[in-house]
Amino acid sequence: MGSILTALRRSTNPIVLAGLILAAITGCALIIYSTQPGPWAFSDSTTYLWAARNLANGLGLVMQNARGEYHPLIWHPPLFSILLSLPIKLGIDALQAARWMNAVFFGITIFVGGLATWRFTRSFLAVVSVTALSVFAIDLLCLLRRYVRGDFFCPWF
After folding, report:
1. Disulfide check for 62: which of 13, 20, 70, 139 has CB 3.0–4.6 Å away?
2. Are strands 70-72 and 62-64 parallel, antiparallel or unpaired?
């Protein structure tokens, strides 16, 4: 971890790095603020939540049908449910865990997007544009981050 931080400090302007960290924190705060009542949950979201709860309760990555039978989770990517089961196992509410996980990954998306822009362009204006667009202008991304969905983990795993 120390070598990654050293390389990051060496190759990145400290002002750019500080700005990206601030933008990532701002993005996290926006998601936390916009999901205060709780994230939205639809049918896919319910599947992710129940699969995570079943996994945390030791039943495995399964869903229960109307007859009470358990079937493996095969229609949805399992990573979100697996990650979500960890805080549930520790006693944290599933919706709140999903809310905070989505906020953290939104912040990571902003930071990595800005860092990649800096690395490939070395343009402060491009970094500011990409980061500002990520944080403030993409309402759709902010709207999608409010859902309890696993799609947001795909770029990172």
Report:
1. 70
2. antiparallel
The number of helices, as runs of H, and strands, as runs of E, in the chain is 7, 2
Break the chain into its structural domains and give their ranges.
29-61+72-156
Residues composing the chain: 157
Secondary structure of 114-127 as H, E, C letters: HHHHHHHHCCHHHH
**Residue 138, SS3?**
coil
Residues whose CB falls within 8 Å of the CB of residue 122, separated by 6 or more in sequence, listed in order: none
Close Cβ partners of 113 (under 8 Å, ≥ 6 residues apart): 130, 131, 134
Rounded (10°) angle between helices 14-34 and 124-132 = 10
Distances (CA, A) of 11 to 5, 50, 80, 113, 122: 10, 44, 33, 16, 10
Helix (H, G, I), strand (E, B) or coil at 57: coil
Residues contacting 133, CB < 8 A, separation 6+: none
Which residue has tokens 């039978």?
69
pLDDT band at 72 (very low <50, low <70, confident <90, very high): very high
Which has more pLDDT, 27 or 153? Answer: 27
Query: What does the alpha-carbon distance between residue 86 and residue 114 come to, in Å, rounded to a whole number?
Result: 29
